[in-house]
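Newbie here. two chains, one complex. Structure please?
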Amino acid sequence: MSVDLSLDYFALFGLPCRFRLDEATLDHAWHTLQTEVHPDRHAHLPDGSDRRNAMAGALRVNEAYTALKKPLTRAQYLLELAGMGSDVINANVMAPEYLFEQLQWREAVEEARGTNDIDALEQLALRLQIQKGGVVEQLAVQLDDQRDLDAAADTVRRMMFLDKLRQDIDNVLAAFDG
Amino acid sequence: MTYSNKVLDHYENPRNAGSFGQDEEGVATGMVGAPACGDVMKLQIKVGKDGIIEDARFKTYGCGSAIASSSLVTEWVKGKTLDEALTIKNVQIAEELALPPVKIHCSVLAEDAIRAAVADYRKKHGEK
């Protein structure tokens, strides 16, 4: 079977085009499709366009899965589908208050690293996780219920900072383990 | 990626790192951040009664190029009026630090930080 490359990621997996998503359904649809398009199944094809198409299909399926799996990339993809350019989504337009808060988080991580305070880092990670949960819920309301794309873009931007913060905390924790 | 010697120098010996007290006379703060890389940059200027920027501080969480860009602008804004400070452009920063194309956005962030700090000063002091 070949993949219709003109389908958007949601349609590819037969899912409704919205933010709220049942991860198990996505995983299942991905496994099914991945088996069908796996390059090994097309190894018998002669070199040429059929085999290249099969390869492109397999890549597309994985690309779609990666984009939909994480709430942040799923929200970004929905905004792109709605016609919002990545330059708009990534614009440097954060409210100063939010940036101050981010600065304070980073300072707290830096301080905990300096004092080898693993407990403090784990508490920060926990607080961050709670905040991220709230942000994901907010995205669901803004994207699915209110269809307020500008507000959703702002939430996406906030989430990008939270992701970076999470990486920072993880890196420091990993350094302690090592 | 290889950093230029100038970036490394600012990274290892940051100029004017730190903060002024928020309530200090003549202090204004510019906060900027780039969602795409998660960088956060704070630039503070201290403006004298004569309208000249006497001193500056920065605090940046980000890559070496973002730190170097903000460190550099704290040096450049000193001794300038607000209007003169606003003439500092990201291309000059990028050129001075020999930033590669993928790091140009760091110099843009530093230029934005100057604008934000000047805007904050003017807001606090009722200038247009």
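Moderator note: Chain A is about 75% helix and 0% strand. The first helix of chain A runs from residue 9 to 12. Thread marked as resolved.
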